[in-house]
Design brief:
Elements lengths: L10 E2 L10 H11 L12 H21 L6 E4 L2 H18 L6 E5 L4 H9 L6 E5 L9 H7 L4 E5 L13 H11 L2 E5 L18 E5 L10 E5 L27 H39 L4 E2 L10 E5 L5 H7 L3 E2 L5 E3 L2 E3 L2 H5 L4 H5 L1 E5 L6 H18 L5
Helix pairs in contact: 1-7, 2-7, 3-4, 7-11, 8-11
């Protein structure tokens, strides 16, 4: 299967940042940009009804992927909006309803949009609690149990980390949250389509999804909102009351259709795709260990999605490696803020110091990665290691 718009000679190993839109998804979306342009909220004529039907069909496909009732899914612009709506919406509704609980618990390795949502609510009288993780990237259940000793409104724990690919054990953590009577939210952006998911079996109250992490289009996602017992949210937007009043605004039908097709493909192909990607990852790791025997893996290998390698090259700067291999698309996991390079908050939360974090690269294999590309990637990194060996972090 070919990639659309791939730059010749480039090798893309940054599939946790975003994925190529699958050509089958593009084909499914195309008519809804042009000839099928009806407003899904204006169903008084055929074109509007057709658009509404397409939206509901997409909702059904996503529901199958997540093990959810279609009526529990609210379309959004992506996981960042979904996370904000889940956390802020739940907190503000509870506050307005007179709920005395103010504690909001999350994990130090969460995506910034979760961490910042929780921290933002401090100004509204809530108590953010950020739990540490172990060196393998996993949350210790006892840490969560201790935090829940104080009455807690909401807990947010991502299913799969966006930098390390580490899979949190939600099946073990969820009962602790339920026993404490708190709501449980999970950012599923990196998990959807990559691991088996069942929001009901996991006992989730709220869960966020993004299309572009699973070969769908950018700009669309969804929030799962439990119906029984019903989870109440205060909406972020005021408007026409679309999506059952939780997310006003005209839905982008082409993007919603794309999300639905991406979910359908993921449901149909996940097991086969996961096995292929895992084999490629193991081959890539073995090849890199030959060229750099001191290579270290950040985070648990066992509790990790198939396509992720977060690797540390001791004594070398990751950015020097990237500069020496410009045709290789990988990432450091670091963030630039105010023109300063900050170490990855995920890696430092796992106990790495700034120098160790700066020597780490994230490589993420995806649906369109070939074995030949990985052979070339190993060769590129081999040359990059030699070129960067004289540099000091």
């Amino acid at each position: 299967m070919s990639r659309q718009g791939q730059t010749d000679g480039m090798i893309y190993l940054d599939n946790q940042a975003t994925t190529a839109c699958d050509p089958r998804v593009v084909a499914a979306m195309r008519p809804w940009f042009s000839t099928l342009f009806g407003n899904p909220h204006g169903t008084e004529h055929r074109m509007g009804q057709d658009a509404a039907d397409a939206v509901e069909a997409a909702r059904g496909e996503l529901a199958l992927l997540l093990g959810a009732d279609p009526r529990t899914l609210v379309f959004t612009s992506g996981a960042t909006e979904s996370n904000n709506l889940a956390i802020k919406g739940a907190a503000r509704h509870a506050l307005a309803a007179g709920d005395p609980r103010r504690r909001l618990v999350t994990v130090a390795t969460e995506h910034p949009c979760v961490l910042e949502s929780v921290r933002d609510l401090r100004a509204e009288g809530f108590e953010p609690v950020i739990l540490p993780v172990r060196a393998d990237g996993l949350l210790d259940p006892e840490r969560l149990r201790e935090a829940l000793a104080v009455p807690t409104l909401l807990v947010s724990i991502m299913a799969v980390n966006n930098e390390t690919g580490v899979i949190q054990d939600l099946a073990a953590l969820a009962p602790l949250v339920r026993q404490a009577g708190a709501l449980l939210h999970s950012d599923l952006a990196q998990a959807s389509g990559k691991i088996a998911l069942d929001v009901a079996a996991l006992d989730l109250d709220l869960a966020s999804v993004s299309a572009h992490k699973m070969y769908g289009p950018k700009g669309v996602g969804a929030l799962y909102v439990r119906r029984r017992p019903r989870v109440r949210l205060a909406p972020l937007f005021s408007g026409g009351g679309q999506e059952r009043g939780l997310r006003s605004g005209t839905l982008p039908v082409p993007l919603v259709v794309g999300l639905g097709e991406a979910a359908r493909l993921a449901q149909a192909e996940r097991e086969t795709e996961t096995a292929r990607i895992a084999a490629l990852r193991d081959t890539l790791l073995a090849g890199l260990q030959v060229i750099f025997p001191g290579l270290a893996l950040n985070g648990s290998l066992e509790a990790r999605i198939a396509g992720n390698l977060n690797l540390r090259f001791p004594g070398l700067a990751a950015r020097d490696l990237m500069a020496a291999a410009p045709e290789l698309c990988v990432s450091t996991g670091s963030a630039c803020a105010a023109a300063e390079l900050a170490p990855s908050h995920v890696l430092t939360a796992m106990g790495l110091d700034a120098a160790q974090a700066a020597s780490s690269l994230r490589l993420a294999i995806g649906r369109f990665t070939s074995a030949g590309e990985l052979d070339r990637a190993v060769a590129m990194l081999g040359h990059a290691v030699q070129a960067a060996a004289s540099r000091v972090i």
